[in-house]
Amino acid sequence: MVSVFDACLDVNKLERAALVLERFGSKGSLPYPELIGLHNEYLRAGIDRALDQPESNWAQSLHQWFEVQIRGKELPFTHETIACMLKISLLSARGPRLTRLVTRYLNMLPEDSVYSVLDAGILNQQDFGTITTLYKPISNLVMDELDSFMTESQAQESLSDQVPPSENSENVPTSTPEVLPVPQRGLGLKTLRGVLSFFDQIEGQDLSKLPIDERREIQLRLEHDCVEAAISRWRDENQSLAKMGRSTSLSRPALNTQIYDWHINLEKKLKEEFELFEESEEREKKTVEDMERCQYAPFMRQSTPTRLAAVTIMGVISCITHHGADKGVPLSTLLTNLAKVIEEDVRFQARQRHKKQRQKSFLQARRQRAMGTTNTTQSNPSETQQDSATTPHSSVIQPPVYDITSWPALVKAKVGAQLLSILLETAKIKVVREHPDTKALVSQIQPALARGTMHRKGKRIGIIVPNRVLVEMMKTEPRGDFLARHLPMLVEPRPWTKFDQGGFLEYPSSLVRIKNGERDQRIYAEAALERGDLDQVSKGLDVLGRTAWQVNKSVFNVMLEAWNTGEAIANIPPLNPDIPVPEEPESSDDPLARRRWLKLIKLAENEKSGLHSERCFMNFQLDIARAFRDQSFYFPHNMDFRGRAYPIPAYLNHMGADHVRGLLRFAKGKELGEGGLRWLKVQLANVFGFDKASLDERENFATDHIKDIVDSATNPLKGQKWWLKAEDPWQCLAACFELKAALESPDPTKFVSHLAVQQDGTCNGLQHYAALGGDRWGAEQVNLLPGDRPADVYSAVADLVKAGIKEDLAANNFMAKAIDGKITRKVVKQTVMTNVYGVTFMGAKAQVLKQIEAAYPDIEGQTGVPAVMLASYVATKIFKALGTMFRGAHDIQYWLGECAGRVCRALTPEQLDRIANESVKSPVKAKKARGASKKTSTNEAMEELLDQFRSTIVWTTPLRMPIVQPYRKSTSRVISTCLQELTLQVPERSDPVNRRKQLQAFPPNFIHSLDASHMLLSALECDALGLSFAAVHDSFWTHAADVNVMNRVLRDAFIRIHSEDVIGRLASEFNARYGGSLYLAKIARDTDLEREIAALRRRNRQSMREELLQERERQRLLASSDPAEVQRGSEMVTPGSLHDKMASSDPLPLNDEMDDLDIDDGAFHMRPIQEELSKAEDPTQAKRLMNVTHFEASMKKMNAANTPQRKVEYISIWLPLTFPAIPAKGDFDVTQLKTSKYFFS
User: Fold this and answer.
1) Catalytic sites, residue numbers
2) What digits encode the pLDDT tens for the residues 123-150?
3) 1083 with 1096: CB under 8 angstroms?
4) Domain ranges within the chain, ordered by starting residue
């Protein structure tokens, strides 16, 4: 509803906005600060209409609105409200009435805060002068200096004479060869180059030398121009082909030319649709079609037909390209993506309009001040505003932080469906084919897109299928639309000050990446920002964004030459891949042979398509690198919900693949100094793959290969090509160039190096777990303890797996015999690496299977044991080895899972109060429940109460960032559109939590939040010391000269985090955050406690809801300060009191948190994982273990029985939410890390 209100204001439908606002007031669904914020928006819009229509009585009606809807309903108005009413008074009244109105409204403010209305941005200086003469208590005032608000239009005017406009520069000669595009018709990659052509016009010029205002203007142009550039490009190509005479009926136009026709037709149809909006809204008796049109009209009106048509076309083509043009796109996916693109563009336009309005007001005020409209003396409005804020008993509240909410799912679906429907109707494509008989070329106009259906997972879904000719054209003309908004920045990113203010100068981006509809993380983040809790996190992101980058021209030139050969070099896929295709078998042959042939054909086609897609993506990256080759640029960063930082520009950044990392270097250079040359050599050894040796051995490796290094840098593509043997060949080539230049300089210590030297952690997740658990053995394996050479946790795990296999050999185990001697570091590495991040058993088995099959393709033929069984056996051994090596970490995983499970089955005090109130209001319901059978009442109560479990896992990082896990069971909603009925997931904060996902994701997400804190803390400290710093999660980069300093910072930051009791602080936070809650615990049947509870329930015959409220009352009485109430509480007998009584004498082990994970407990309860998983090839057991993580399975305590047992049954009771005791910590002292030189290396 709020988004409907905003849309109505934006398109000047104030009457409808008033109806929506009245509905908010009558329902009481919004808190007062938000409601008065909406009233202020309405009054501002009313002022605009009164200015446009001075002869109407609109201004007068706003006085009535204020009296009835604001004062009449006793809303606490703001200074902005009074400023609006003063402006309305100046527009609608004269003489004594104006004096009375001004005096009346200003008297509503506290006496010493009347000046705060001047800060609302509503009254201009002429208004101030008038009010000053009418209201005597106001002394002379003067506006604050507005010189800093020079408009960007002025800046653009001053720049237009100096910087050429961004036009197609196809004829501008450039010294750098162009990137050979993927074969295409027409302008092809000009989709991107049309925006980037500006850089060709300034080749060789470094824009960083320009004044900051000019650089900001160029950056703004890059952010603004994409849609306009696309429309211009379509029109220009259409005109150029027309001039060339290539628009005959038997020639197929290029894609851009056909898209131009789509745009013209779609724009025309949208103009007709806009006229229908007016007719539907004015019609008194509305049809169903009119009602539906009125729902989405205000939202579409926020844009123009021209822009809507362009954005629709680009959005649809981009979505089809991204999801695979050959297969078609599900209609729901296409509509969701299209609506998202439209909404983003509408928001961007709204922000631009608002900014221009403010600039216009500022310019008007400056002109009035220059003309001497008023004589004023300066005062300090901020002081008076501060004083007014502390005035007691004031009815004036501070204005809320108000932001436009996202469009409702219903509106998104209808807007997307309407636009797509019109596009399907208007988009046509010319198809030219050879006649099968006459061989003459014939042409036909066909729909470019068709709507169909298909069956997927047993359901019939709608799909949009592009014409085959369109698919061919899209494959040869990859689309780069909307790319300009995701390019690197030419100026330092805007510092993060609010949730949606930071990064790009104007294009909206958010501090935390949030999926559509998920509001929890945003609410927590905005509250933390308001308190200042995210200051360190925001500053850390600013540090990452301020790191300036350049294209490494030496590497780029080699890469460009390699690319233009069309050959497969390093990770560059070939232009024309030669993928062998087997011959088709004879039709009389075995039908199974034909099936195998078809499968091989499909694999070959998929491989060829994958290589083509990869080359298209690299095409974009190289074109961006070519455009920015002479510039310094920046990557603005934001975070995911766990706090991990990511660059916002998606196509070219340092988190990319090897070729992208090789292309980038620091823009700021630094002399190598005494130790820098050594670290250059270590960097080369690391990227070559020689990174398991000691630092001295790595340095010697580079020294021993100095001839290969010089040859690689001198003749990269015509010499020995030693660099191509490296694990990361392009980064190796970059290091070769840098090392050769340093060694050939007169004094290598004075050589100015730009190369980013990387320091990687040793399985960083395990490093954090070892520190949390105090595991000395584990800490040694991940280099938390000092050593003469780097420890290798993967080799250590492999050794333990081998030892376990030797033990089984002694017991004549047939799988041990089959796999003996075949375990290597590579077999176990991926599983060890992903274990701390929640890999499932089936996932681990697949990882091991892939390595075994790669090393021993015919292992089943050699050993007689299927490879998949051996993979299960080895995965079991890996899990057991990790549990032995990281005992404390294993216990912490268990503890985290236990806490998460309890929280997800808890009801908060607020929920308990609401349930109690509902029971008071509906006693009949409770009586009916008591009259029903025990089984029926219990089942009904459980179903109802399970839907109340809405407490998601929330915790705070060491840098005070709140983390909110977003996993809920979203409800589906059927929405009828003009195309078909859509079933959409509509996430709401009131949805029940997805307990399995919450529990499964908590341990890895918690570790991610710690390594994110470590990275940001290191970034802040490095910045304070003057270091250039970049990071890729657990890989940290700086200049070669500063590696030693950075490594010290990394160690200190890690020690600083883990010197505190991280788990103890988390437990305290959980107790504070979830205190007073009750959770649903489970008690095993056939125990003394269960029999006591069963007897109590037979006597009381209470429903689960009644037991819940009774336990709530007992806890309230026990917590009372009145001894009498405490006595009454202690005398109450509930299942919870029986539990407390028996637990006090004999602690009761509760396994109540892992049984709700969709696992069949019958065959697995109390069974050791290492024995059970080896039998996982049984289809039933494999299905059960499909999504069970290692720590989940451990918490299940699976026993060793080989035959299925009767499933252990439980009963449920309500208990106060408490958390298990924190696991005992080992004897590892994290301060020992100070002397470990291989912590990051």
Assistant:
1) 760, 829, 1034
2) 776 777 777 777 766 544 333 333 333 3
3) no
4) 184-350+406-425+439-491, 909-950+1078-1166+1201-1216
